[in-house]
## 1
Amino acid sequence: MYRKYGGDVQFYIVYIREAHSTDERQVRANARQEISVMQPTTFGERVNVAQHMCHKLEISIPTLIDGIDNAVGTAYSSSPDRLYLIGRSGKIVYKGDRGPSGFRPAELETAIKEELAN
């Protein structure tokens, strides 16, 4: 979707509080893949974890990092993940359900098409 609409829509990942840190809520899949991340306690640590994630997953979408106060994650109720589309008006035109079960890229793509058609 980023490659398809990136010329018309600005895409960002916002890295928020670590959902599956080893000191809070480690998941078996991460353990099997030897992913071991402690919950960052400073902004610098959060930046390092986000950079490592982007490198390991080969993410090319620009990534923003929520402050250690988690203001963005809280304001957008985005934990563990959520898709949003902000329209030309500056208002939210699409708000997906919380992931992973509510992570529906096809719905976002429909909203993008509708916004671009207007």
## 2
Amino acid sequence: MIQLYYMNNYITTNIRLPEEDYLRLKEEAFRTSKSLSAVIRQKISTNKSPSKPADQIIIQIRDHANQYASSMKKVDIVKTLREMRNQGKW
């Protein structure tokens, strides 16, 4: 038995985009592992969810940094980054 789930009522349409915009959207879709349609729907959506204010993000980053600061004192970050680059451990 095949079950189909419909989240929205979609309408298929054709639109014309400048080649530059199309390539930019296609690259964003690839980079974010989304479909081109999903990226376009996200761009034109009117019900965007508000993101966190920048000051809340900075506070969260500082909290994490303070939490792990003691365990990172003996780490040579430059040496670690060079090793990752040279050994291809990305």
## 3
Amino acid sequence: MTASNSWKNCLEYAAISDVGLRRANNQDSYAVFLAGTQQDFDERGHFFLVADGMGAHAAGELASKIAADVVPLTYHKLREKSPPDALLAAVLDANDQIHNRGSASPDFKGMGTTATALVLLAEGALLAHVGDSRAYRLRGDRIEQLTFDHSLVWELQAAGQNMDDPPPSYVPKNIITRSLGPNTLVQVDREGPFPLQAGDTFLLCSDGLSGQVQDAEIGAVLACLPPAEAAQSLVHIANLRGGPDNITMIVAKVLGPQIADDGEQSTPPNSSTARIRPVNPWIWTILGTSALAALGFFAMGQWAIALLALLAAVAAGITAAFQRQVPAEEGWAVSGKRLGNGPHVMRDCAPNEEFIDRLADMMLQLRDAAASEQWQVDWNRFNRHLSLAETARQAADFTASGREYLRAVSFLMEQLKRQKPSE
């Protein structure tokens, strides 16, 4: 889907959450808040979040929903803080609220959630992260994992200084080392800003996707399809591989500079006048109070005290004027400096013959299952996708071939949903 009328020429995104095949309920949540105006983008950017809850009964579902509600709301309220500081404070606020809710009821005791938040700003992509949900960036033929998994497997691999070595088989893969809610304190990773380029595609996802689909496969699917189709295809692949967990993701593709198309003259976001730093409310309070005090003491004839109050008012006025003159982006995005250590993993992911072989095999198995179960399928449409895929494959156009194979798989999966249950 396009982002909105204001951003249709510069951003495209899709969000999807699927219960999977083995879970009775969906404990994942997500949030998307696009800037309403150019000024909103310049100050706070576009916001995306994925959360994967954990806990008995409905506890995990509640924990992830609190994160999806609280983090964006608090982030946008804290306008006096820089984006990295506001994002950190928002995640910590969510941790407090989840912990307090869990402590107040035996049914929710110990509940928690992962949280991976992405903000797209003029300075670049900024992330806050707790848990093992992930954030990726596809740029060209390379996919990068921008976040570090807070899991036992990753912590052990990091201790060995080689993330490419497979963990020992006896190490459980489902143990996470950090989450929001179980404890009063939590350490939050911040990453970025990662500069944006036209064509960059960002993916946030729960481990229901990353546990079933390899990084290079994720990147290849993102390269083959626009965001909405890519998200749906990735859900289908995860489910065809067993779908053991909830599957949630947000795909956001940068089409160009983030300049709102609202019918008004907009200043490019990177210009020195694009963003005005908000003045701390305490400065306005000091200015007003000092000015009133100066007038009062002058009226009473206490010239020395009145002069001091006047000087305080003048100093506050100069401070306010200085803050308004400094572009906000200079307050935190210092050239050459970056938060965190990401990207943490990088993979080449250009669609290739091996990727096409896997898709073709998946498609054929699904087709055989459809035939044996006597699904009611529009085989003419399916065969058109198959013919286009094979033609592109013969021409070694693996991106076009992958696109048509993925569309063939999605078509059959959608047809499956329409089948009447057997009596």
